[in-house]
Amino acid sequence: MYPTFRLISLAAAIALLSACSSDGQDAAVEHRTESPPSASLDLQAWTADSAAGAEFWHLLDSNGEPGAVAARLAADGQGLWLLDDKGTVQARHEGNFTTLDARRHGSELLIATAHTASQQPTLLQVSADTLSVRQQLLLNASDYRIENVCLYQDESHNLHLFVVGEEGRGDQWLVGTQQTLLESAVHVRSLRLPLESEHCAVDEQQHLLYVSEESVGVWAYGAHPEAEQSRQPVDLLVPFGGLQKMVAGLAVVPGGLLALDADARQLHRYQRQESGWKSLPPLALTGVVEPERLAVRVRDDEAELLLVDGDDGQLYQTRLDWVPEPSAVSTPATVPVLWPTVQTEPVPSVGDAADDPAIWLHPDNPAASRVLGTDKRNGLGVYDLAGNALQYLQLGRLNNVDVRYGFQLGERRVDLAVASNRDHNSLHLLAIDPQQGEVSELGQIATPLSEIYGLCMAQSADGVLYAIANDTDGRFVQYRLDGSSGEAQGELVREFAVGTQPEGCVADDQRQRLFIGEEGEAVWVLDAGEDAPTEMTQVIAVGGLIEADIEGLAIYQHDEHPYLIISSQGNNSYVVVDAESPYQLRGSFRLGLNAQLGIDGVSETDGLEVTSKNLGGQWSQGMLVVQDGRKRMPEANQNYKYVPWQSIADALQLD
Ligand code: CA
Ligand code: CA
Ligand code: CA
Ligand code: CA
Question: Residue 604 C-alpha to ligand 3 middle, in angstroms?
């Protein structure tokens, strides 16, 4: 799971610094003053045949590949250099390059660098012994000076490139998938980094991007494309942290991070903890004037370090014991990652705006079915199965929406959508033309709620339609809807409550059961009927696969057994349980970035909806629609993503 930090704005970061200075209680940074290094590292000068003045180095690991020889890469004004550990040049790729990251894939190397003159980030897939180029991906020239680049592979094996630039500029690019470079890079998101950002390093296991801020400290950002733009301090300069003078090169080691303090000539070591980082005593670097850059490889609990002296360019090498703390490298349970195959146009409102979808099924032409999605700041969008926006109704703050069929409205029969309207604490009724799918406003029904929130619909066995809405205080109100007079009316027929804030709810009309989500607690079920008792049974509670908040709920009507799909917002996943007692857990999945189709992954989902109807093509087993809390590739207002049910059934082995 990728980390989500609490948002630290600039102002909050300043507040954090002052908080640290006064009480030193911040979880991530131990408050320390001058702590003299407990020991020093014995450095040996190391000289290469050529490329001796290169500023950028990378230590290649054999990666367990049989026959692969551990070696070194360097980048400078003459090219990219491959050297053996004795410093003898094995191969060169000519050019004028700055910055360097690399990884080995079998007999090939993937090198990330940048052309010095054009400031174009570049990826080269080369032979690991001759550096002959097999594939190349040249990015557009950046409009800022590039300080460093770092590679990152997400859990779906998509390859990303972080570009860290001057003046706080930076970008994340999608550059490859599996082990193949894309034909052109796709912009994932802009990074908002500190002004003095320079060095970067990526911890793939923890999905972290570390960035140094020269006169402030080291920060950790979420590296995952869906991560928030928030950061946590790993360490800060004295008196706020343990760094002494000037942060320079960074390198990730298993379960931790190494950082150079160039002016203090120290190496700092950090162990990743459950929350934050633990500093080990710094090590003095003797004999070097200004240790500026750092390359590391770790084998058998020993880290091999190559340092570049920023003063005269001299290289030094040394070894260091490095044993990760077991807890620090524990990886979260693996959850299958599936892909959205369609996304809707973004909603018109900025910020957290899209919230809850509903699916309207066309009676004869499934491909003409539509998705309704609330824009909780301003109204409701209507989309086709390709994600195109067909309609937008500006109706106010509609939070949740649901759909049912065959509502008698005077002489006419329409399909009905009902949304919870937070501007008026009302049920907002919309007619859907049963043939054309056109959505039009019918009117509102007032409720006694003071903060209307979630909403779902139900239909009794004899066709009566209900709207069930909840209040953030836990109250539920159930309305019987009647349009026989020609005007839509609602009668409050039942009330019940849960103890804390609810939102998502869904009715299983076939079995007349109503599932409701109490966001921080559990999913409950009760009879849906207007006269039925309101006694509730717990379906599943927060814990295990479910991390609060419990958000959207939906029912997949399989021929034999219904499934309940739950948005587990706290861990960006979707949990599937049987919608019948004993509510057996079927598993969970996440939605990753679809590199082939250029669709970003899905995180922080509020509402969702599912249908088991065959909508044709990839939707033959039905379709799941989810709200996406963070739109990337490119960054834009939030939208909805569609997922073929078949992929979920396959991944969770549902029959
Ligand atoms: Ca949200
Ligand atoms: Ca809904
Ligand atoms: Ca909510
Ligand atoms: Ca997303």
Answer: 10
Residues having C-beta closer than 5 Å to ion ligand 1: 352, 606
DSSP per residue over 206-217, as a string?
A: TTEEEEEETTTE
Q: How far is the CA of 457 from the centre of ligand 2 (A)?
A: 9
Helix (H) or strand (E) segment spanning residue 180: strand 180-192
Q: Is 538 helix (H, G, I), strand (E, B) or coil?
A: strand
pTM above 0.85, yes or no: yes
- For residue 575, list its beta bridge partners: 566, 588
What are 415-426's pLDDT values in tens digits? 999 999 999 999
Taking CA atoms, 608 is separated from 205, 543, 550, in Å, by: 29, 21, 12
Rg (CA), the chain: 28
* Residues 6 or more apart in contact with residue 615 via CB below 8 angstroms: 361, 366, 367, 369, 385, 622, 623
**Strand, coil or helix: what is 15?**
helix
Shortest-distance ligand to the CA of residue 355: 1
Q: Which residues surround ligand 4, an ion (CB under 5 A)?
A: 600, 628, 630
Q: CA 62 to CA 514: how far, in whole Å?
A: 57
**Residue 121 Cα to ligand 2 middle (Å):** 43
DSSP state of 617: G
C-alpha distances (whole Å) from 480 to each of 451, 468, 475 are 20, 9, 17
Q: How far is CA 377 from CA 348, 396, 399, 473, 549, in A?
A: 9, 7, 8, 21, 21
Averaged pLDDT for residues 257-262: 97
pLDDT value at 331 more than 80? no
Helix (H) or strand (E) holding 566: strand 562-568
Which residues lie across from 90 on neighbouring strands?
Answer: none
Would you say 44 and 305 are in contact if contact means Cβ atoms under 8 Å apart? Answer: no
Cβ–Cβ under 8 Å, residues 193 and 168:
yes
Separation of CA 401 and ligand 2 centre (Å): 4
What is the pLDDT, as a whole number, of residue 247? 96
> Could you tell me which residues come within 8 angstroms of residue 133 by beta carbon, excluding any fewer than 6 positions away?
93, 124, 125, 126
Cα–Cα distance for residue pair 264/37, rounded to 1 Å: 10
| 212 CB-side CA count, 13 A | 30
DSSP 8-state code for residue 50: S
DSSP state of 461: T
Q: Distance between CA 197 and CA 420 in Å, rounded?
A: 46
E strand or H helix at 360:
strand 354-360
